[in-house]
Amino acid sequence: MTQNTFDIQSAAVIGAGTMGRGIVICLANAGVQVKWLDASPEMLQAAVQYVADTYAHSVRQGRIDEAEAEARKARVSTAPDYAAVKDVDLVIEAVYENLELKQKIFRELDALLKPSAILASNTSALDIDAIAAVTGRQEQVLGLHFFSPAHIMKLLEIVRGAKTSRAVLDASLELGKRMGKVSVVSGNCPGFIGNRMLKTYVYEARSMLLEGAFPHQVDAALQGFGFAMGPFRMYDVVGIDLEWRSRELAGKGQDEPTVQVDNRLCELERFGQKSGKGYYLYEAGSRQAQHDPEVDALVQRESEKLGFNRREIGAEEILERCLLALVNEGAKILDEGIAESARDVDLVYLNGYGFPADKGGPMAWADTQGAKHVLERLQYLTETQGAHWQPSALIERLAASGRSFADAKKEV
């Protein structure tokens, strides 16, 4: 279908889990009529109650009045099946991360929806083009990656597929504005902008546990820099078991040395805050992370079992490796055109990943260091740590020309 503009006034959300609930609230807050579906009627009813409770809490907090809460609730209704949502302007799929399941949903929706409807996936890492390929409207398929909890977190990654039309991107950006989001357009690659960079950051943090650091030391160094929380506290909040279960389902990745500490914690049912213990201990009803010497002992055992000769790792090394991992991957993302500018990369990290606001984001921070210095440190890490530190070609060009990441748009 060719159409110059898409006006999103009605939507359907598939999935009543944590993400679906937050997305429904975002849409209702923005004045969009929402139809809600889930394979489990019980889950859907619990989710509708959650939305009502959330609005009641907002009234008690004085954020909205009773009339506004009722107006928002009235915009949300449940639907029995896909046929009941055939006239909506937008569908957002928010089921668990399984490509085949998402393709099945998109195939069925594509056959039923009106020709002008936009199809969006809330996937955090899967291939948008592979999802779009099962439809007859690839120009109207994209990713709308919300961050959890979706009605609180500001960031929205809008993922353009190879065939996503400009008009569909514009409509999504407009919707993002109505929802009060900081919207950043990303190209399609595993993990998009944010999670692709996070993977390299977490890899360094986990590697340093095996080499000699402990979780509380890594977190303290990054929190000292200004991060909202370090990577291990972050895992306790989101649940250490999510990636563990994902690796189990995929049948790959469980042998990777850097995830062995996570694996041992999950085998002990230390999943994080929700189970009262993960990398840290939590008293009942508290989110206060308490240092647990048992975890240090577990880290030491796993590290020695894998043949590492442990050494002291200081805060300076922790910071450098975690930050430069972000910067180098961010530079690759820029060079590939996945992000449109260094500022977009920074917006993702400031609004979705707790990067310290006063540092301006990873690429802005790198500019304070200078491309030449960043290149020298990456070259040193390549020599001492391995080929995965190979500097991005963009960093090499910026260092040679004396330019900054702020100029990267002109460099690409």
From TrEMBL:
Keyword Cytoplasm: no
Pfam families: 3HCDH, 3HCDH_N
Gene Ontology molecular functions: isomerase activity; lyase activity; NAD+ binding; oxidoreductase activity, acting on the CH-OH group of donors, NAD or NADP as acceptor
Domain 3-hydroxyacyl-CoA dehydrogenase C-terminal: 191-282, 318-404
UniProt xrefs under SUPFAM superfamilies: 6-phosphogluconate dehydrogenase C-terminal domain-like, NAD(P)-binding Rossmann-fold domains
Biological process according to GO: fatty acid metabolic process
Protein name (record): 3-hydroxyacyl-CoA dehydrogenase
